[in-house]
Write the C-alpha cells for this entry.
Amino acid sequence: MAGPLPIADPAPADGLLPATAVTDAATRAFGLYVHVPFCRVRCGYCDFNTYTAGELRGVSQAQYADQAVDEIRLAGRVLAASGAPDRPAQTVFFGGGTPTMLPATDLVRMLRGIRDEFGLASGAEVTTEANPDSVGPEDLQRLAEGGFTRISFGMQSAVPHVLAALDRTHDPARVPLVVGWARDAGLDVSLDLIYGTPGESLDDWRTSVESVLAERPDHVSAYALIVEDGTKLARQLRRGELPAFDDDLTADMYELADERFAAAGYEWYEVSNWATDAAHRSRHNLGYWRGDDWWGVGPGAHSHVGGVRWWNAKHPAAYAERLAAGVSPAVGRETLGAAARETERVLLGTRIRDGLELASLGAGGRREVAALIADGLVDAKNALAGRLTLTRRGRLLADAVVRRLLYSVIE
C-alpha cells in the first residue's frame, strides 16, 4: 500500500477554491490526470496507491468509470463556481496502477467525460500507461479511435531476471509486438525503464537500452529505482535477500543510457526523460515541472491550481462513498506560500532542459553559478547566454545543485 497522505488542512466538502488560486489562471495550461488504481499483481518496489483484486472487497472495477466521470463533472462545477475561466484540457494522462486493466471502452468513456465537461484543445496530448501484457491490437485501436494519441508502456527491463526481481509479469518478447500494434493504431509510443535493480549488471542494463533503441519509440523514460519504506523490496533488502545498491554502478547506468540515447538521436529534456524531438516530449509531465494547473481524478489523486494543492481519499471505497454522498472526494489541502513556490520552481526548473533564467535567481543563487560551472555541473555556454542548464554530471547531482541554488530562496 502507499504511505499515508500528507498532513495538511481539511479540504472543504464543496471543493471550492480560494480566489487567489484562479487569479491569472487563463495564463496557465490546464490538464487532467486520471488515476486508475487497479493492478493484476503488486510489484515489489511499488508504493503507489494501487490495489489488486484481493485487496478490493466491496469495490467494483466495473463501476469505476462512472465514478471518475462523476468527479470530472464535479471538477467542472467547482472550477466554474470558484471563478476559474473556461479552459480546454491541453493534456490528459491516465496513470495508475494499470489503466488498461479496465476495458478500452471504459477509458474512452472517461475521456469522453473530460471532452464533454472541459473540451480538448486542438492537438491535445492524451496518454495512457499500459503494461505490455495488458493490451492487444483491438484495445489499442479502440483507444486511438476514442481520442488517445499516445501510450506509455511499462517495459522496465528487457532482461528476465531483472523483471523477476521487480515482480514484473510480462515476457520481454512481447514489447516489440505491442509497440508494433500501437504504431499500427496511429499512437505515439513511450517506453519506460527502471535501472539500479538489485542484481542488475551494467551489461543487463545495456541490453535493456539497446532493446529500447531497436524499437525506435518516440519517447523514453529511465528512472533510477527508489526503495520506498513499507514495500516488499525494502523488506527484502533489509533481510539481506537481495544485494545492496551500488551508487557508482547506478551512475554508470545513467551515463550509458544518456550516451546511447544521444547517439541514437534522442535529446534529454528532463533528467530522466528523452524524446526524438521537442514535439514528442511529454507535455503533460512538463506541466507538472513548470507548475501549471491540473485536476487529479481518482482515489488518492493530487491536484494543483494556482498554488493550491489537494488530494483525494485514498481507498476506492472511501472515494466512491464521498462522490455518492455528493461531496468532494478531496480530504486534504494546502496553500503554498511564496517561499515554497519559489523552492519548487527552482527544484523542478533545474531538472528540465530549458532550465532557469539566471536573472530569476536571487543574488545568493547567482553567486553559486560560477562555482557550479567550475565543478562541471552547469553548462558554461548556456550560462553566458543567461540560462542555467545542467551538464550530464550535473544531472547526476541535480539535488546538490538545487541545494546550492536555493540560497536565492533563503537569502
Summary: The radius of gyration is 21 Å. The first helix runs from residue 19 to 22.
